[in-house]
Amino acid sequence: MDVLLAIPLIAAMALALPAKKHIRFGVTAFALLVVLAVFQTTGGRGTIGLSSTYIVVAVVALIAILSLRKQHLPLLFLPLAVYLALGMTLIWEPQSGQMGSALNLLFGAIAWAAGALLGSLYRDDPAAERWLVVGLLLVVAFELAVCALQLAGLQIFVPDARTIELEGGRANGTFAHPSTVGKILTLVLLLVLPSTRSTDAWTRRLASVAVVASILPIVLSASRANLLAVAAMVLVWSLLQPQVGFSLKRFALPAVGGGVILIFLDQILSRFDQGTGEREHFMRVALEQLGRTPWTGVGPGSYVPVVGRFDALTAQGWPVHNIFVLQAVELGVIGATIFFLPFVIVMLRSAGRWRAAGSEGSFARAVLAYVPALVAIGWTGWGWLAPDVLLFACFAFAFVSAQLRQRGEERPLVPPSGSDVRVGVTRS
Questions:
Q1: Mutual orientation of helices 98-122 and 323-353 as an angle, nearest 10°?
Q2: CB 79 within 8 A of CB 338
């Protein structure tokens, strides 16, 4: 069944090839959103197989490799591929799931190529923008409906027995764990927030609805880190807007989002009262291992079998709840630096373009707004490194990177004063 979903999606993309660019974009975007943000079929970190997610993303990436310019290809993942090959050949002790984990990391490059292709089709095309916003709004609406039905008692998208035992009472949407919903939706926000500044009124409204509605599944999934992440993201996004003077309109989205959170305040506070479990213990154990193998690590997907030799709780299957430390322990400081480099470069480019006019500046500001969200998510859990989130993250960052212009295609910056700029409309 995992493979069958790919057949109609690939067929739809093939039929759309002779169509206009914005139609090709829309069909491809819908297909990728289906397999990356709704019906994920990737499995765990240490497993990789034939499924709809891998197939559809690979097909789009193949088209990208054949058609894109060199600067849009995921060349920054080549050092990671070389490092993983050397590590598995010469450095790391073989472990169960190590090869699957390495391949999932490298498949991030495939998802990056797919995102670059879609981003190149989207660039400066209002029709494509409308397609994307509608697709993202449908993702949010579907996850919200599934979460609501789950809390109403309907047995759909049921997680495994261990997750039910540990996380019972929390909605998990279409994913295997309740916390995944919020991680996916913060990446949806990364893509939809720029359209709240669109010059098209309907696009702005639909994007704003998607932003506010995305808070509800996160609340229903009862994830503290994800709730903090989305709140920080929307607030920072509002503060970064290049508006002249002070205006309460700047804080319209945070205010509406805060109102939604207040409705569920009792449930949210009860979740925060539950404590942080064994996270401090896991961090201490991880830092001890990092001291033993600081530079090259223990190998991808090898945290539990290796570190579990020194800690009984880790041996039960619990990694450190921190993506930065986890990646440093598994890949070493060298490997972790290489892995995060493509994301850091997009962030740095965004920091240099956040005052740019039009959609380029909006996407740059969205990336900067995502930074505190990533810190909140990454510092308190490891799920961002799981393939169901990592592949969508690679896709989203590549899509945004395609909107940030290279040297030689500069746009004028938004002037610090005297410009006619309103919430949702930018005139330059």
A1: 20
A2: yes
pTM for the model stands at: 0.90
Contact in structure between 54 and 111 (CB atoms under 8 Å):
no
User: Does 1 reside within a domain?
Assistant: no
How many Å apart are CA 202 and CA 209, to the nearest integer?
11
407 part of a folded domain:
yes
> Which residues touch 418 (CB under 8 Å, ≥6 apart)?
244
- Spatial separation of the C-alpha atoms in residues 145 and 39, rounded to whole Å: 14
Tens of pLDDT, residue by residue over 322-376, are: 999 999 999 999 999 999 999 999 999 999 999 888 899 999 999 999 999 999 9
Query: Which residues form the domain of 264?
Result: 6-426
Q: For residues 337 and 324, give the distance between their C-alpha atoms in angstroms, rounded to a whole number.
A: 10
- The pLDDT value given to residue 223: 84
52: which residues sit within 8 A by CB, 6+ positions away?
A: 2, 3, 4, 5, 6, 9, 35, 39, 41
Task: Please state the domain count of the chain.
Answer: 1
Asked whether residue 176 is assigned to any structural domain, the reply reads yes
Q: Give the whole-number percent of the chain exceeding pLDDT 70.
A: 86
**Burial category of 183 from C-beta neighbours within 10 Å (exposed 0-12, middle 13-18, buried 19 and up):** buried
What is the SS3 assignment for the chain? CCCCCHHHHHHHHHHCCCCCHHHHHHHHHHHHHHHHHHCCCCCCCCCCCCCHHHHHHHHHHHHHHHHCCHHHCCHHHHHHHHHHHHHHHHHCCCCCCHHHHHHHHHHHHHHHHHHHHHHHHHCCCHHHHHHHHHHHHHHHHHHHHHHHHHHCCCCCCCCCHHHHHHHCCCCCCCCCCHHHHHHHHHHHHHHHHHHHHCCCHHHHHHHHHHHHHHHHHHHHCCCHHHHHHHHHHHHHHHHCCCCCCCCHHHHHHHHHHHHHHHHCHHHHHHHHCCCCCCHHHHHHHHHHHHHHCCCCCCCCCCHHHHHCCCCHHHHCCCCCCCHHHHHHHHHHHHHHHHHHHHHHHHHHHHHHHCCECHHHHHHHHHHHHHHHHHHHHHHHCCHHHCHHHHHHHHHHHHHHHCCCCCCCCCCCECCCCCCCEECCEECC
Percent of the chain with pLDDT over 90: 63
Task: Give φ, ψ of 356 to 5 degrees.
Answer: -70, 155
Q: Does the pLDDT value for residue 57 go beyond 80?
A: yes
